[in-house]
Amino acid sequence: MAKSHAGMAPSRLTIVFAGIMALGVLLPLMMAVTISLNPDEEAIVVEMGSWRSFIPHVISLQNYIDVWTDPVNPFLRYLFNTIFITFTTLVISVIFNSMAAFVLAQGSVAGRKVLLGFILAILVVPLESLVLPQLMLASWAGMIDSYRVQILPGIANAMAIFLFYQFFIRIPKDLIEAARVDGFSFFQTYRYLALPLSKPVISAVAILQFLEIWNSYLWPIMVTRGPEYRPLSVAMSAYFDSNKAYWGNIMAFAVSMAIPVILFFLVLQRQFVASVTNSGVKG
Amino acid sequence: MKLRTLFLLGASVMAFGSVAKAESLTVWVIDGDTEKPYFTQLETRYNESQSENTVDIVPIPGYNQALQAATLSNDLPDVMLVDGPNMASLVWAGTLQPLDGLLDPEIKKDLLPGIVAQGTYGPDGKFYQIGPYESSAVLWGNKKLLDEAGIKIPASVDEAWTADQLGEVLGKLKALPEVEWPLDMKLNYGAGEWLTYGFSPFVQSNGGDIIDRTTWTADGTLNSDGNVAVMQRLSDWVNDGYIVPASAGDNKFYGEKTAALAWVGNWMWPAHEQGLGDDLVLIPPPSLGEKGPVSPNGGWGWSVPSTTTKLDAVSSFLDFAMSPEQVALYADITGYIPSRVSAVPLSKLYASGGEGALFVDVANCCSIVRPIHPAYPVISTAWATAADNIMTGKADVRDELDTAAEEIDEDIEDNAGYPPFGQ
Amino acid sequence: MNIRKKSQLQQYAMLAPAVLALGILFVLPFFLSFWFSFTDQHLVPRPVPSRFIGLRNYIRILTDDDFWQAVGNTILFAVLVVPFQLAISLAGALILNSKIPFRSAFRAISILPLLLPMTVVVAIWAVIYRIPNGPLNAAYQLFAGPGAYVDWLGSSTTAMVSIVVLSAWATFPYQMLIYLAGLQDISPELYEAARVDGAKPWQRFRNVTWPGLRNVNIFLLIITTIGALKLFTQVSILTRGGPNGATTTIIYYLYKEGFVRQKIGYASAVAVIFFLAVTALTLLQRRLFKNESEVQ
After folding, report:
1. Interface pTM, i.e. ipTM
2. Which of B31, B33, B69 sits opposite A224 (nearest CB)?
3. Is the Cβ–Cβ distance between B59 and B37 less than 8 Å?
4. With an 8 Å Cβ cutoff, are C48 and B415 in contact?
5. Are B372 and B85 contacting, i.e. CB atoms less than 8 angstroms apart?
6. Which residues in chain A have their CB less than 8 angstroms from residue C17's CB?
7. How far apart are CA A179 and CA A167, in angstroms?
8. What is the pLDDT of residues B309-332, one digit of tens each?
9. pTM of the model
10. Interhelix angle for A12-36 vs C118-128, to 10°?
11. Which element (helix H / strand E) includes B24?
């Protein structure tokens, strides 16, 4: 796609609006960072709302140390859980969904059309409406409070299959045919031709699912009971359950939780933007 | 022959081994800042007190959710804290085992009556939950403001204010320039257990209740004319501007001192003491009808899941945690009342003549335990929702109570009356 | 074995994991939902066996005021958040599509909220809305005088609007990026032609940009609406559905009945109703826009 910056020369007003947008995003974030660096809980509460809660004027890592070393709410354990669940889900999801999509796009077995239609139908089902029977199944299977129960729901993803399908269907038939003539089996064609070609889709699927898992909340609160398997998102919300609303600690936890994602984003910014845009192409 | 001796020796070593086998127990407790120092010392001292067992006390954030997930995964700890009124529902579902064989019988004899009542499950009369502390609620007063309004403070339970007297008191206090809303009833706690704990005593004081405790039906009891009258009066007080609204925060009584009275439990002791100092005065719960003053009671206590098998170790831990020293310590650290009679004199606050003696008096004379029934979670939610709506001052009291009664009876019917209850 | 057969076997084997997983994770629960909705299934096993109870769950749901309040709240949320969020997303996209200085820095900054997990966003906004002296109330006091404050999350008139604002803040970059791609797809010649015709900026927007975004608009309208109907995390943590039920959404109601109160049967019936409503809405939206999107 040609990069067509249809943009007009910015008026002064546009620049003002850009500034407002940036401030609207940055001020809450600066507030979070400022509060997280202030070890004095009383001062935090008193200063809340003044400029002093937006611009760091005390710099102490005390809250971070508290959060990272709290034995009851072990931050590092939660971080490990989250990363482990995310990584495992992504790897399995990419393999399972791309394999299936390749068959749907380039295979010859009967019923592909029906199956594809079926997967598109799953795309419109609001998955939240399925959590209770999923919970019953998990409970019958004895999987409550484990990594498995948090990894499973992400391994087959209709959206991922659809994105891979869209890509694989556009691979020229000649190319597939050539691979076959060279003696590649169907699986080898997938493994050594299609999959390596699909790197942009892999990153799109990975990024979209990554966001989904980092944001998931309803499922993990139902299926985890304590620090052993709990992800960061649920641990964060537990701060609101207890009476100890120490804003300094809450914000230190929040910032610690946000930083890995932001770093990840800075590295993969281009792919990130592309993947969000890709998910929307079918308009 | 030799072989046989060896075998016997081996067997006896194994038998001996099993008697002295060191067990390690996992114990779940609530994750509260007030309680944390207590549990930390409990873990250390128990582990030092003997060499056989070790205990690992784990504070659990989001306790009720965790408990539910653990029940589903069959992964409950060896001992856990259970909130008093939820005990029946857990016993009914088969989650808990009786404590009768596990506890030193002397301990049970020494408990305050309210704690025995709270832990006893009706259908089998067995004991499933033992609280290290007792709780209660009274009216807390700001003596300076009360004196200024020329109000005589009742000295004992017999002199408790009647509904009309309390109305008059509130009117006088409202007239003071420093007072914004005279009575803080902790509406800021929200539509949760507090509204059952703290507000069911008002209807009970008028001879009512939130459910009939023999037939286990709510209709006709929860929504009785007497209950409607009491709740209507509270609602009117809200509209008269007598009650601190929910959104006004926690500190109108002890911080800003714009409220002259507070209706809340003894956990507020440290905050009230610090905020009011010598102006703090304790007043018996109001007597809103035929039954006289009524106070709530109970709280969290130790229970043993039915899946637990390390019973010897559990028994030794429970006896330790319920020793008079530990019970007194719990009270001193958290501000609650010791649950053992023999521990009361050990406590600075609650010993006879101590500042908190009224709490012990009230707990002894006037406490009514919350209904011990498997439907309690539903009963409490339904009542609390109604009370929360009523305390906005804008709800139709009878409608709200009718809805609550219907919801409770529907649930009980859905569960076939929760057999063996209602049979 | 001939090659064709081998290839077919391989294809089945490659389909199997995803298809099996989809079946167990989504299809089976889907049918279980229907089944449970006619029973009084409980979450934690209880001494009274679950039984078939016909339409009782449905009758009770449809006569429960709290359910209708949740439906109303969910619709209210969607009606408020969809236009608001799409408007700020489009505005953001227009800004980023113009040749402002530090364009890529502005883009990077404006994407940040999307990267924050919702629980983190909620924590930050809990401070912003804090009474009596959070930043928003501090701003309010500039107008209303010292000491005045609004209980943004605690009053039934402002709670839902507060949730709308924080939700839009949290997820607008997603729509913004899609709008941005849509804007970049509009041919520059059209703008050139409009400029030659002497169109003012507003007219250019009205006659070139807006029509050019038609498909993007339809797509975003559908996914933003569906997303809005699933509102849960924010209200679950910040308001617990209160005050007085003012922020109880359908999913929160479902969670409360099914998980907290453990009434799986009842909550499954809620899920079935929700599913049917969302499917109907999606089909309706597709139908409404189908003819239009085929025009291009």
Report:
1. 0.86
2. B69
3. no
4. yes
5. yes
6. 95-96, 99-100, 155-156
7. 18
8. 999 999 999 999 999 999 999 988
9. 0.86
10. 90
11. strand B24-30
